[in-house]
Amino acid sequence: MKNTILKIAALLLLVAVMCASFTACEPTYDVYVVDIEVENFGIITVRLNHRNAPATVKNFLKLVEEDFYDGLTFHRAQENFVIQGGCPKGDGTGNSSEYIKGEFSANGFVGNTIRHEAGVISMARGDSMNSASCQFFITIGDARSSLDGLYAGFGYVNDESMEVVYAIAEAMYPYTSGKYGTISLTYKDKQPVIKDIRVVDQYNLG
User: Which of 1, 79, 100, 122 is the most exposed place for a label (fewest CB within 10 A)?
Assistant: First the structure.
């Protein structure tokens, strides 16, 4: 009996420690602020809107907590459209171990009102509407007409950080090719590296 009680106590302590972090348990705040640090470029500060895209934000925060993005890259840049990163293969074909439901209207989700104007972070996906996992993109132009309702926007880049986003795009353009503006693995060293993504704040909306 004593051993059983000790085991239960240890398990409860472990759960409490895990839930003390931002992301190990169900997110409880409306907004999570993250810093995406990109080597040789600086920090992109992003406000993730959990209220609009709860499953998307939960998944992103889980990957951040696991240091999944550390050392990955931005592999795609299309002028006046997006920069894209977070692919474990570095070529746009990689995924994490989990997929999430697409939180956008074409997939029957009506709670996400984020529109794809410049400075929005959104989840990349394949042909399936529920195929998003880890890759994300940041819009660098007004993409509302082509992306709204079809992709899950889940936050906004702070205005002062857009300078960093545009600098990343400009550095990538000379090495991109093909329809989607991908930097091939031949030029992997030209892909900007995500040094770290970390949660720096959280709060509720009024």
Answer: 1
Answer whether 155's CB lies under 8 Å from 48's CB. Answer: yes
Residue 157 token pair: 């880049």
Pick among 2.40.100.10, 1.10.3720.10, 3.30.160.20, 3.30.1490.20: CATH of 27-203? 2.40.100.10
Which of 178, 173, 46 lies closest to 119 in space, CA to CA? 46
Other Cβ atoms closer than 10 A to 158: 15
**Which H/E stretch holds residue 201?**
strand 194-203
The maximal CA–CA distance of the chain, rounded, in angstroms, is: 68
| DSSP SS3 for 34 | strand
Name every residue whose Cβ is closer than 8 Å to that of residue 130 and which is 6 or more positions away in sequence: 99, 100, 101, 102, 107
Instruction: Return per-residue pLDDT of the chain as tens, 206 residues.
Output: 555 555 555 555 554 444 444 444 688 999 999 999 999 999 999 999 999 999 999 999 999 999 999 999 999 999 999 999 999 999 999 999 999 999 999 999 999 999 999 999 999 999 999 999 999 999 999 999 999 999 999 999 999 999 999 999 999 999 999 999 999 999 999 999 999 999 999 999 98
- Region label for 90, one of left (φ > 0), alpha (ψ between -120 and 50) or beta (otherwise): left
Domain ranges of the chain: 27-203
